[in-house]
Structure formats: C-alpha cells, structure tokens
Amino acid sequence: MAKSVLVIGGGPAGLGAAKALGSLGIPTVLVEKEDKLGGRPVIEDYHTLIPRKMKPDQVIGPFVSDVQNNPNVDVKLGTEVEAIEGEAPNFKVKLSNGDTVEASAIVVATGFQHFDPKRKGELGYGIYPDVITNLELEQMFSREGKLYRPSNGELPKRVAFVFCVGSRDRQLGVTNVHCCRYGCALSGLQGTEIREHYPEVDVFCYYMDVRTYGTWEYPFYWEPQEKHGVRYVRGRIAEITYSPSDGRLRVKHEDTIVQRPSEVPMDLVVLVLGMEPSEGTKKIAKMLGLAQDPDSLFLVPAEEAASNITSNKAGVFIAGACKGPIDIESSIAEGEAAGAEAAAFIGAKVTA
Ligand SMILES: Cc1cc2nc3c(=O)[nH]c(=O)nc-3n(C[C@H](O)[C@H](O)[C@H](O)COP(=O)(O)OP(=O)(O)OC[C@H]3O[C@@H](n4cnc5c(N)ncnc54)[C@H](O)[C@@H]3O)c2cc1C
Ligand code: SF4
C-alpha cells in the first residue's frame, strides 16, 4: 500500500498539515467539504485579522497556493468522509464522491463553528436588525466596505460590543464555559477600525474582564483606548431591547465597577461570538472513536502523550480549532506539527 496521509479539513490547520506533508514528498489527500480552501476566515470573508492586521488572503493565501501547486497533494473539494474502516497504518476511507483512499495516517483538522446567538434570546439577535454578530460586522466591512445600521442604512452614532457571547457562560450549562481567546482582541481591532474611519462614531466595549493574550495586550487593548478613544465598560448585559420612541436599541446592564444598573441607548450592537466544535469535528470523532471533552465536545489529546496533537487513536493526529479556541497562526503551526508527526509515524524518508 502507498504510504499516504489523509488530511480532513482545508482550513488553516489542515493547510499547515498538507503543506508540511507535501513538502516532505508524502502523497497526501486533503478533503474539504466546502468548495474552497482556507477554512472559516476565507469561506466567511473575515476582513482584517489579528494580530498582524492582514487580510485572510495574505495570511492563508500562500498556504492555499502552496498546497494546490504541490503535486504530492491531491485536493478534493466539496467532499466529505463517509466512513473509515481499519486501523493505522491501514485505514480505508470512503469519500462522498465515491473514491476510496488508503491512508497510513490521518490528520483531523475539522475546526469549529460559531455559537448561535439566538440561544441567548435576551440579547435580541434575530429580533432587532441592529443587533448583529462580530462575524457580520467583518462581512459588512469586507463585502460592503462601510458601517451602517441594517434597519435603515444610516451610520450609527453609538456602537456597543458585547463580549463573551456563548463563552464563559455558565447559564448555558457547562458546554460553553471556555474562553474564545480571539474575541477581546478582535473587538479592539474592529473598534479601532470604526474610530479610524468614522471618528464621529462612539464605540463602547462591554466586558467581564478583558483577555488580550500575550503580545496582543498593547495593540488590541491599550491602543484602542488611548489612541482611538474606544471606551471600555465593565458590566454584565442583562438585556437588549428596542425603543420605538427613538428607534434605538437599549443596552441594559449592571456596571460592576460602580455597582449600578444602567440603560444606555445604542444604534448598533455587535455580539462577540464564542466557538464550538463543528459538526464535522463531532462526526469524525464518532467515526474514529476520538476522545472528546465531555462538556464542550472539543477533541482532546491522548492523556499519556507529551504533544497536544497526538490523539488517543494510533496514527491519528488532531490540530487547530477542533481541539478548542485557537488563533489562525497557532492553528497553522499545529497543522504543520501534526503533518510532521504523521510523516514520522509512517516512517517516511524526507526527499528534500
Ligand atoms: C468571528 C471570528 C473572527 C476571528 N478572527 C480571527 C483573527 O482575526 N485572527 C485569528 O488568528 N483568529 C481569528 N479567529 C479564529 C480562527 O477563525 C481560527 O483560529 C481558525 O479558523 C482555526 O482554523 P482551523 O483550520 O482549525 O478550523 P476552521 O477554520 O474551522 O477550518 C476547518 C475546515 O474543515 C472543514 N471541515 C469540517 N468538517 C469537515 C468534514 N467532515 N470533512 C471535510 N471538511 C470538513 C471546514 O469546512 C473548514 O474549511 C476568529 C474566529 C471567529 C469566530
Ligand atoms: S477572549 Fe474576551 S470575548 Fe472571548 S471569551 Fe475570552 S474574555 Fe470573552
């Protein structure tokens, strides 16, 4: 049997894995269920990425071209895994396009999905058109190139970001208690972009506490406040309502610094969405018998493994957001590491 590796998922993590494997001269099959590579940031048109303020095409594009132009990588778009039989190094994988792939190792990079904000009814998403998600704000910038209130097309005077929607939330049970990692920093960037392009628009960030990890603290927390006038308000949002008298939203919250309830008029409210394992992640976990966190259902590495990309199943490696919230550059790096581990597992010789 040819020593090939199957990579499931063509987002940042899967691209990192396929690039590493292809450059090691290993026959690789990359299966992506959507009709293009790049994962959520490309498929969903993110606008500008933290931390380097680059476009998805600039960050992920080079990996897409590398993989597409590597003769060792067979990219199968619009394709899903239907069934997996056998054990490493003799997996037999049936694909939705009718092909069968014989794989010696597998990299799972099936990623995440966004939290559905309708599960937090009190925030008014799906009821009031001017309550949008941070993903929709990214798409407003990238697809339409302007900021506006969906209800009337006008420029909002006041914009509120509500942090931690579907994250760190015990009201949802134990499934969504994890931190999304990207949300505070991305809001700092989005708030900055709004203030740079529309200095007349006031921007408020409602937070429990701000988590801008590592080197993200200055550019995405202090700079938005000190250089761009983004205002941070510590408080828990109780409810978002609409007032027909002035056609504006009302953000009702308890300011946890002054310990007072407060109600503030806003024109646009942006919900900062959490991350959950994708349906594909849950499906592949079941197919392969991969260990999952019992609450969040994200994949978890093997207990005894030193590396967090080694799954509980021999010959199967796990990378990126299928294991929990993570940023793009780390997803790519984990994918590359998983590709290298898969290559080592099948004992491939480096051809370069
Ligand atoms: C609104 C928002 C904004 C963000 N902005 C940033 C940012 O600015 N900077 C940053 O670093 N991070 C950001 N992130 C995080 C970033 O999106 C993730 O780090 C990254 O997408 C993870 O890459 P991945 O490859 O693990 O997963 P994904 O991007 O989810 O890719 C997984 C891929 O697998 C495919 N797939 C799933 N199941 C199957 C299956 N069964 N068969 C075949 N294919 C399958 C999917 O279609 C998808 O293409 C943001 C997240 C959100 C929610
Ligand atoms: S990164 Fe910020 S917005 Fe996201 S869950 Fe953590 S604290 Fe909340």
- CATH topology of the largest domain, anyone? FAD/NAD(P)-binding domain
Quaternary state of this entry equals: single chain
The number of domains: 2
Total strands: the figure is: 17
Strand content: 25-35%
Poorly predicted regions: none
The distinct bound ligands, ions and cofactors come out as:
flavin-adenine dinucleotide, iron/sulfur cluster
**Percent helix range:** 25-40%
Structural class: alpha/beta
Please give the CATH architecture of the largest domain.
3-Layer(bba) Sandwich
Count every helix, treating DSSP H or I runs of 4 or more residues as helices. 8
Average pLDDT over all residues = 95
Main sheet strand line-up: 9-15-10-11-12-13-14
Apparent shape? elongated
Largest sheet: 7 strands, mixed
Structure description:
This protein is an alpha/beta fold and 352 residues long. The chain folds into two domains: 180 residues, FAD/NAD(P)-binding domain (3-Layer(bba) Sandwich); 157 residues, FAD/NAD(P)-binding domain (3-Layer(bba) Sandwich), CATH 3.50.50. Helices cover 26% and strands 26% of the residues. The strands form four sheets. It has a seven-stranded mixed β-sheet with strand order 9-15-10-11-12-13-14. α6 links the parallel β11 and β12. α1 packs parallel to α8. The longest helix is centred in the last third of the chain and has 18 residues. It starts with a strand and ends in a 7-residue tail after the last helix. The mean pLDDT is 95. The site of iron/sulfur cluster has 11 residues, from β10 and α5.
